[in-house]
């Protein structure tokens, strides 16, 4: 069980997108999230759709993985479409459904908004699909580095994130162990009314918290014994490096952005 | 001073004013390149000694010198620079998300350059035979493997003193064997001071000297061979001698041993020599 455990959504593959510096990816995605709201006609939407789909294709991740990531939001996408379809009153009346008039403007509006939504989710999930959590942590640490000037604990935040990532599988294994131990003592997690099942979680959470605190204490001592005393004067093993590949990706991305502003009206 | 790497001088310690003393007037010293085992049952104060050695705790009375420096809150970082410690729980000392990152942790803390870091990681993983697991996450390793990574992390900082604080206590027999083999190999390859803290007499066989703790006091300071003879009195303070020693002690009246055998092989050798003489 433990060997197949993957934290987050990361899907390993040998692709250009995987190899890009996480900072490049984060910055491009942030820009995309803002810029997508500037698209206002069919051409600009088509342009961004082509970009997003090619980016997705470049990751070499099988489409069903991509779709799996979108699963929880399908409902929202469809819901927004329907909402706009029935509520917007612009353009000509095309037809009536259940006595409600459907306007042409509504159709376009609904389509645009749900497409925008779809592209946003697709592009942002590409980040977590192609970047390991630890890479994201490193990227956040370097990107937030300037905030150190205003005493924001950037290093501590990154360390906290990486330690949490490291302990997720450990605590999951522990949860499993405790739940088995409690089940063998007669705690019923699976049946009964909701209220009772929620109550059954208490004997699971209490030992888990107790042990997590004990772990934290021991870990802190081990870290101190290994010479840890904050971020000052530390060197780093994992180094992020912007290489030619990244410059090319940024260049390409800028062209896409310029293209968008040319195409929009 | 030059030859004594660690000196405890009349050290007493308790966790709080209203608590009983954990260590009472303890004095001993450890020489250059010596492997000293500190033995005792639970609550004998042996783990406290380990924590005092690298300034995780400070004595209430008495003084401690490590490499000639007195252990005080001001010198603690200089001392930790050269003292490596392996703890009991394999999971709660693994900081990195992968084996490589974890071995690097101590080096990163000391501000070692990246190039040197990569070399040291490779070397130290080689000496604990974990090179194949460079990018493994901790949850994919066994307890023994995790402890070997912890030892590699200690080796990477090139310490003068390595403390193993019950490093095998939470492992299965196989993991225990792995660690003892690793430690024995280390002793042969590198010159390093080693302090191993344990309640298991099987693990002191390779040590140069044994300090037996009982109730916060030094009960006995001796060599493993001598200690194995004292089966009766050891049992009184809650310690059990290994099987080899038990067999030897039962046979003492009939077989006459040159010296107390430490390992099964030594016992067998002496037995067949005795047998062929008859």
UniProtKB/TrEMBL annotation, chain A:
Annotated coiled-coil segments of the chain: none
GO molecular function annotation: transmembrane transporter activity
Top-rank lineage group of the source organism: Bacteria
Subcellular location: Cell membrane
Swiss-Prot/TrEMBL keywords: Cell membrane, Membrane, Transmembrane, Transmembrane helix, Transport
Database matches in Pfam families: CbiQ (PF02361)
Gene Ontology terms: cellular component: plasma membrane
Primary site of residence: membrane
Membrane-topology annotation of the record: Multi-pass membrane protein
Subunit-level organization: Forms a stable energy-coupling factor (ECF) transporter complex composed of 2 membrane-embedded substrate-binding proteins (S component), 2 ATP-binding proteins (A component) and 2 transmembrane proteins (T component).
Family assignment from sequence similarity: Belongs to the energy-coupling factor EcfT family.
Function: Transmembrane (T) component of an energy-coupling factor (ECF) ABC-transporter complex. Unlike classic ABC transporters this ECF transporter provides the energy necessary to transport a number of different substrates.
Name of the featured protein: Energy-coupling factor transporter transmembrane protein EcfT
The species this protein was found in: Halolactibacillus halophilus
Classification of source organism: Bacteria, Bacillati, Bacillota, Bacilli, Bacillales
Encoding gene, per UniProt annotation: ecfT
Automatic annotation (TrEMBL), chain B:
Source organism, top-level taxon: Bacteria
GO molecular function: ATP binding; ATP hydrolysis activity; ATPase-coupled transmembrane transporter activity; cobalt ion transmembrane transporter activity
Subcellular location(s) per record: Cell membrane
CDD domains, per the entry: ABC_cobalt_CbiO_domain1
Signal peptide coordinates: none
Entry's Gene Ontology cellular component terms: ATP-binding cassette (ABC) transporter complex
Keywords for the protein's UniProt record, in alphabetical order: ATP-binding, Cell membrane, Membrane, Nucleotide-binding, Translocase, Transport
Membrane topology: Peripheral membrane protein
InterPro entries found in the cross-reference section: AAA+_ATPase (IPR003593), ABC_transporter-like_ATP-bd (IPR003439), ABC_transporter-like_CS (IPR017871), ABC_transpr_CbiO/EcfA_su (IPR015856), ECF_ABC_transporter_ATP-bd (IPR050095), EcfA_1 (IPR030947), P-loop_NTPase (IPR027417)
Keyword Ion transport set for record: no
Family to which the UniProt record says this protein belongs: Belongs to the ABC transporter superfamily.
The protein's name in its UniProt record: Energy-coupling factor transport system ATP-binding protein
Species name: Halolactibacillus halophilus
Underlying gene: ecfA1
